[in-house]
Amino acid sequence: MTRRECREHLMILLFQLEFHAEEELTEQMKQYLEQAEVTDEKSYAYIKDKYQKICEKRQEIDTLLEEVSEGWTVKRIGKVEISILRLAIYELKYDADIPVGVAINEAVEIAKKYGQDNSPSFINGILGKVANMEEEG
Predict the structure, then answer these.
(1) Where in the sequence is the domain holding 113, given as residue range(s)?
(2) CA 120 to CA 134: how far, in whole Å?
(3) What is the distance between the alpha carbons of residues 38 and 27, in angstroms, rounded to a whole number?
(4) DSSP string, the chain
(5) Which of 64, 72, 84, 91 would disulfide-bridge 98, Cβ 3.0–4.6 Å?
(6) Minimal CA–CA distance to 93: which of 122, 67, 72?
(7) CB neighbours of 6 closer than 8 A, spacing ≥ 6?
(8) Each residue of 15-57: pLDDT tens digit?
């Protein structure tokens, strides 16, 4: 399974966060990955590990997101877009193995596939601000 496919599965799992209680998340993840037929052990472990790490950092990610998205709260951003942004911001801030350009490009490509017409430019703009903050900070 490619990294992009793993990212798409992660985005879908993060999307499900919006609809399930915290205590259901582990079971929801297992059910989703089983239904999606993610049988490759390496990909399964990668998705599970990254999903758990993003969930742990979700509050920090959302706080940062609200700082850079002038006039937008997390509740106001579309559920698909917030899911993509959480994944990408995690990669930008906490995953040193992912180059900044790759994290942004992958998020924009996923937005083209799953988001609305203006999603790619919105996501690109937000992630550009986050990347600039990281360079300055």
Answers:
(1) 3-136
(2) 21
(3) 15
(4) --HHHHHHHHHHHHHHGGGS-GGGHHHHHHHHHHHTT---HHHHHHHHHHHHHHHHHHHHHHHHHHHHSTT--TTTS-HHHHHHHHHHHHHHHH-TTS-HHHHHHHHHHHHHHHS-TTHHHHHHHHHHHHHHHHHH-
(5) 91
(6) 67
(7) 43, 46, 47, 50
(8) 998 888 878 888 889 999 999 999 899 999 999 999 999 999 9
State both tokens at 135. Answer: 């360079």
CATH number at residue 110: 1.10.940.10
* Per-residue tokens: 56: 């742990």
| Digit-coded pLDDT (tens) for 55-78 | 999 999 999 999 998 888 888 999
